[in-house]
Structures are given as C-alpha cells and as structure tokens.
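Structure first, sequence second, as always.
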C-alpha cells in the first residue's frame, strides 16, 4: 500500500551519507542548510566516507516498498544556501532512501531520550530519529549516530539493552 501514496513536498534538507539519506527537519532558521553543508564538508575532510547533497530547503518524500525515498524539489536541485554567503550550486544526488531523520530545535530533545523519541513515522514508514535541542550543535551528534550504525527500521523501534558480561 505504501507504494501508492503520492510524493509530498516538505521544508527540509537531505544529504546522502554513505548508503542512506539523512533527512533534516526543523523550523525556519534552525540550521537545516548549515547541518547539510557540514555533513558534506565532513566527507570532504575525511570525518565521513561519503556525503552528497540531495536537496536543500524543500524536498519530495515518497514511500515506496516500505522505504521512504527523498528527492530534491526540481527548481532547487543542486542548490544550497550557505548562511552569510548566499546560494551556491553543489553536486547532488537525484534520490536517496531515508535512513535517519534529524529534528533540529526539537522540543522533546533530551540528554537521555526515551525509546519512543528515537523513531518517527513519515507517510507510514517508521524511521530512526534524532532530536537535537535548540542550544546544541548537531553535527557531532549526527556523526556519532551514523558511526554507531543507525539503520532504517522495518516496522518499530528496537530498544537496545545492556547485558553485563
């Protein structure tokens, strides 16, 4: 059923990092474009193995076979706003499969988030979610999430438990 839902446009940015896209949401001025550019720059400097812009400011989301696809809005493909510098053209990917949703300026961001806050549902697809508080810089936390192997969820969040050895 999810493959029949039409694409929707949202105000967000998206970057392909490795094999999956990071979808960056948040209110105007929260730093979506800044985080997108920082992820791309982290690949350029070796902190990430690969990162390329999918879209900035507006992206198209479409559920397809239990995955959420993200594409750039056609009028903005390859464009990114760098605050204080202006709009610039970058190489971009035409599509990505969302593997992590980052919510900037999230009101529910917590030092030790509840398991329910670690997932979000978009167009019927449950995805890993990272809520970032307004006062926190997001890049290091996002890189930590990605380096810990956050992967798309099948149906529901998985809560890791610690078992003493």
């Amino acid at each position: 059923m999810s493959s029949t839902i039409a694409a929707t446009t949202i105000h967000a940015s998206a970057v392909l990092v490795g094999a999956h896209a990071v979808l960056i949401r948040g209110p105007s001025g929260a730093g979506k474009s800044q985080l997108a550019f920082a992820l791309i720059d982290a690949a350029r400097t070796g902190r990430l193995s690969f990162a390329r812009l999918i879209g900035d400011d507006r992206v198209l989301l479409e559920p397809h076979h239990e995955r959420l696809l993200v594409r750039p809005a056609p009028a903005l493909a390859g464009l990114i706003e760098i605050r204080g510098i202006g709009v610039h053209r970058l190489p971009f990917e035409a599509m990505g499969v969302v593997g992590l949703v980052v919510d900037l300026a999230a009101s529910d961001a917590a030092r030790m988030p509840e398991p329910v806050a670690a997932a979000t549902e978009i167009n019927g697809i449950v995805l890993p979610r990272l809520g970032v508080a307004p006062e926190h810089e997001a890049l290091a936390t996002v890189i930590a999430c990605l380096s810990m192997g956050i992967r798309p969820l099948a149906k529901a969040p998985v809560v890791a438990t610690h078992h003493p050895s």
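Margin note: The CA atoms of residues 1 and 65 lie 8 Å apart.
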